[in-house]
Amino acid sequence: MASETPPVPMDQATINRVVLASFLGTMIEWYDFFLYGTAAALVFNKLFFPTVDARAGTMAAFATYAVGFFARPIGGVVFGHFGDRLGRKSMLVTTLVMMGAATFLIGLLPTYSTIGIAAPILLVCLRFVQGFGVGGEWGGAVLMAVEHSRPGRRGLNASWVQAGVAAGMLLANGVFSFISQNLSEAEFLAWGWRVPFLLGIVLLGVGLFIRVKVMETPLFVAVQTSKKPTTLPILEVIRDYPKNVLLAMGARFAENASFYIITVFVLTYATEKLGLSKPTILNAVLFGTAVQFIAIPLFGWLSDIVGRRMVYMTGTVLMAVFAWPFFLLVDTKSPVLITVAVTVGLVIHALMYAPQAAFFAELFGTRVRYSGASLGYQLASPFAGGLAPLIASALLQWSHNEAWPVAAYIAGMCVITWVSV
Predict the structure, then answer these.
(1) What is the pLDDT of residues 281-301, one digit of tens each?
(2) pLDDT in tens, 201-239
(3) Cα–Cα distances in Å, from 217 out to 26, 84, 137, 145, 187?
């Protein structure tokens, strides 16, 4: 891809509009996705799995959380197929509607006390829809930014899509934090938790207004004009780029697992094991995410200068080293030190996450780039991010509330990623 340039030079104002649309659309979709993670860590065990003890209920909630990650590769394959055949833009509109509708319906879902076992079953189904939609979203948003960009700016422009993920989490945790601090525990469990999910319908309208105005990427249009579209892009990816798909998967392990331990598992760890209040840990994640939001485009810009691999591998090594200090800082129960731990962890994570979008897109040719980038990115999600909170919870129970096995797990993921990158 390094030699591929938009056939018609794009003016900077047009590129900026495309990047902004990709950023805002991604922010909205990941707001939907992250809401579920926060709710799974804080309330879903009580609302949808009340018949089991607290630890088992938390693990059951994290298991439903993981369902979304297992749906992501399926969504990546399906939307990648149509994105390579029909275009990037139409798929982004479809995924946005799918995510917004599923999130809104979760906000309306009756709990276990109302409809019994049907409640967690419906919750799993809606989580699957969320995962299916977000599985197709990332590849399309990244390609809109990358394929409109000049080669020397792809790292920076694509990193704004990654920053949209951070912004989505910032928004999700911010809404949850605001509501939890202004309602009693009883009010929060009775109806307050629904408000962030119901707000998703408003964001859906904003996102649709933005995305329908963006033009198709010039690289895709050029390929469609000069060549017949591939019949089955996914088969072409598997035939021509099998190594790149596997390396992309491996490159995600440390990035994905560490992120969900730092932002999701830590919510349960701090509230259940350490006895801290929800606002304390939510505010720490909020502050850390705000700093990460600034760091991502800076590291994306740096990857255009020194290379994607250098920035990525630096983050991998630092994450392996920081895994143990992270839990030592959290175990102090000091709000300041917990905030430092989460913030440093997310900045290190940004070193891997910022160059990732352009890095993965550049592994595949334009004809099959949506399928290839989505497959490599999303196939790792179930095994890294999706299972990370569940594995971390099991390790904590196995070690009788000692955090060192979780730190060792993070370090092991870092070894896989370092080798892959």
Answers:
(1) 888 989 999 999 999 999 999
(2) 888 888 777 777 666 566 666 656 666 666 777 788 888
(3) 17, 11, 15, 8, 47
**What is the mean pLDDT of the segment spanning 83-95?**
78
- So what's the architecture of 12-420 in CATH? Up-down Bundle (1.20)
- Written as six digits, the tokens of 22 are 């990709």
CB atoms within 10 A of CB 79: 30
Per-residue pLDDT at 369 exceeds 60: yes
Sign of CA dihedral 292, 206, 173, 261: negative
pLDDT band, very low/low/confident/very high, at 154 (cuts 50, 70, 90): confident
pLDDT given at position 2:
44
